[in-house]
Design goal:
This protein has 196 residues and is an alpha/beta fold. Helix content is 35%, strand content 24%. It has seven helices and eleven strands. It is globular and about 45 Å long. The model has no long low-confidence stretch (mean pLDDT 95). The structure holds flavin mononucleotide (FMN). The site of flavin mononucleotide has 23 residues, from helix 1, strand 4, strand 10 and helix 6.
Length: 196
């Protein structure tokens, strides 16, 4: 039976809980699942399938970009999925980018105010703008799916410049907008894909 790794990184902690929830769903059929912070992953040889998850922190967290870049060769021989936690996502018609199906939390993905004339923030937050650097970091890796999930923001956990960025550019309000049923469904569907 295949072994699965859910490897994540985090800025303030909340993506760790998302990774744990995904790990629980993937383990439902008795499959062995390790949930590890990226920094704790020492190798991928033991795994047939790998989920890599990270928050958007001025783009996908740099530790996640580095991880997929460094492990690109190993990941091309495994079933892979990515997930991103975020607070701002512009809803576009893209449900597939570079042949990879995207799943966007409907509560997170907000349509632009004027379709066809996106504001700076709306352009910054499109799935394509977020994903291009991720796919460029490890172009040989073909994830089966990429999920965008609502995240969590607690201002007191941030450095001053981080809080300023989030308030001015992302214009996000503090709070927890993680959509657990959406995350669980995503993981359940992924489980089916990992099993086939
Ligand atoms: C410095 C900083 C930059 C961020 N940049 C983005 C961003 O570009 N797009 C976005 O949607 N959310 C952004 N966020 C929000 C985080 O992605 C969100 O709060 C996430 O849930 C944090 O996960 P964590 O608790 O695991 O660190 C940013 C947050 C911080 C603190």
């Amino acid at each position: 039976m295949s072994k699965i790794l859910v490897a994540y990184t985090t800025n303030s902690g909340s993506t760790a809980e998302v990774a744990t929830e995904i790990g629980k769903e993937l383990a439902i059929n008795g499959r062995q699942v390790d949930v590890r912070r990226l920094e704790e992953v020492t190798g991928l040889d033991d795994y047939d399938a790998v989920v890599v998850g990270a928050p958007m922190i001025l783009g996908w967290h740099s530790a996640a970009l580095k991880f997929i870049k460094q492990n690109q060769t190993a990941l091309t021989h495994k079933k892979v999925a990515y997930f991103c936690t975020a607070l701002s996502l512009t809803r576009t018609d893209d449900s597939i980018i570079h042949s990879i199906p995207l799943q966007m939390d409907p509560d997170l993905a907000i349509p632009p105010v004027h379709a066809g004339r996106l504001s700076f923030k709306e352009r910054y937050s499109t799935p394509t703008n977020y994903l291009n650097p991720i796919l460029k970091a490890a172009p040989a890796v073909k994830p089966l799916r990429i999920g965008f999930f609502g995240g969590k923001l607690e201002m007191f956990r941030l450095k001053f410049w981080q809080a300023a960025f989030v308030m001015i550019i992302i214009r996000a309000q503090p709070g927890d907008v993680r959509n657990w049923p959406f995350i669980q469904t995503w993981a359940r569907e992924l489980n089916t894909e990992f099993s086939s």
